[in-house]
Amino acid sequence: MATKPRKNSPKPLTPADWPRWVRPGSRVFIGSYAAAPAALTASLFSGDIALTDVEVIHLHTLGETPWAEPRFSDTVRTNAFVLGPHLNDAVNEGRADYTPAFVFEIPALLRQRVLPVDVALIQVSPPDRKGICTLGVSVDVVAAALETATHIVAQVNPRMPRTCGGTQIPFTRFTAYLEAAGELPELPIPAATSKTLAAIGDYVAQLIDDGCTLRLGTSSIHHAIARALREHRHLGIHSDVLGDPLHALITAGAVDNSEKGPFAGRSIAAFVAGSRALYDFVDGNKAVELHPSDCVNHPIAIAGNHRMVTVHSALQVDLSGQVVADSIGHRFQSGIGSQVDFIRGAALCPEGRPIIALPATTIDGESSIVANLETGAGIVTSRGDVHYVVTEFGIATLRGRSIRERALELVQVAHPDHRADLLGIAKARKWVPVYEKLPASIVAGLGGIAVARLRLAGEPYVMRPLQPSDERRLQDFFYSHTQETIQARYGYMLNRMSRERAYELVNVDQTRDLALAVLEVQGPREVIDAVGRYYLDADGKCAEVAFVTRETMRYRGMARALFERMRTIAAKRGLVALRAQVQIENEAMLGLFRSYPHELSAIDGASAVEVRMPL
User: Fold this and answer.
1) Concatenated DSSP letters for 599-614?
2) How many beta carbons lie within 10 A of that of residue 608, not counting itself?
3) Which of 87-91, 237-241, 245-249, 523-527 has the lowest mean pLDDT?
4) 195-428: CATH, from 3.40.50.720, 3.40.50.10730, 3.30.1360.170, 3.40.1080.20
5) Alpha helix locations (H) across 471-539?
6) Whole-model pTM?
């Protein structure tokens, strides 16, 4: 970090010094997150120092925030870029301000003196033998504030890690300093993961391949995602925050930064926030570098990584894909933060995946997927930016999807208790056709069916249940068939597959019958390559199976993979056998069924046989 040394050495701070630097009308910058200088702020805002019309600005701070207490409401005005529990009430009661801004642009606001800084209060590690300190666990927007501040007052804390990257600052750069040891604020690590968060983590993990570069935060959702990624390998880190979820992936051997491209071999972040074990991990660790936010958070820098995946949470998502993240109605909750920086950066990255992950319901049981945003709610990420929305009920793929398709995708990942209302509103708006309907019965997990990754003939695929939003995909699948395939599959010549007919075929009651697909994932695009179904007999003990595979994808084992999954599900559901009617000339399908215990019987008057396969 470029800094200009002072001509004189800094002096130890005394309370009598504050009025000389913090004058009426001054703007005071406070360091970020766990590096907020608690000893300095306790001294300045003790109540013993006369303050007049002072503005305090900062990104987000951990620990106490005395400057935002009601006792200073007439003399100190807080202006925060990101809110937290201590500031929410102050802002919503009119005692403090919130400035929405993309984090990567905040350094420019400071350097261009849109928000000129008079005094910067920071916390640093002790100077080394050459007189060089480091900014410790937060570089982010602090670096820009120090370049422009008239006075820098530093808390020198021996418990502050000495970090690598763009963190160095000469001790002589400070106006004054205060030696004060203190433990850094820590973020709790969840002892366990709820079923809801575990399901979200599992679904997000399905969107992340070995070798991807990650941005994860520090919330319970991100801890669950990290747990689901422990068996991945060669992951990289390029994140605004390095927290315990990413640290856990490093210690699990999932991260080695070998394939990330820029900064290969090194984890890159703008700040560190988490446990003491994490702070000790980054102390002197050259494999972890901290750099300013205008570098780390810049969408172009983010896009330069290999297969960038970013995961952010939200308060609400509407049926068109708009994301609310900084307010509930008119009540501000947090801030724009890094969400848009990383969402857009990942979207610009080849094979990048920007993901919004949230529970399907709030703590009050209300739906997080909504038809109408609350009046005043702030749209942080636009409907055009969102690629994936993940809840505990699945993955909604939105990129390149129409409003009709988006609504169906999002209804599917909403909580079952709210899906009917959401679909009804979408119909009333003419967003979806009136024939769209919910499956007759919806069970979480679809009777134990899970989305599964496959590798067939050396290529990756996904197997999952067909769902209502697959109607266009199934239509494309149908029109890829030859007339011979259509005749064999449907038993008669079918010249048209309307959207309504396709919808009937994908909208299956998966608690009774079964419809699975093998899909080729091409970025955010999914292409159906094979479909397997079974239809339950009237006695509920047996089911008839049928398969169809895209002609260009045959002989890759797709039907066998589907049949194996169907046998497993059928057995769990208490069926005693599966059966199929197969044309005698269909040697491939007969060969598949004959590889399992089976019974063959001729069908009178037909060139087909019935195959019964006990479970």
Assistant:
1) EEEE-TTSSEEEEEEE
2) 15
3) 523-527
4) 3.40.1080.20
5) 471-479, 483-490, 499-506
6) 0.89
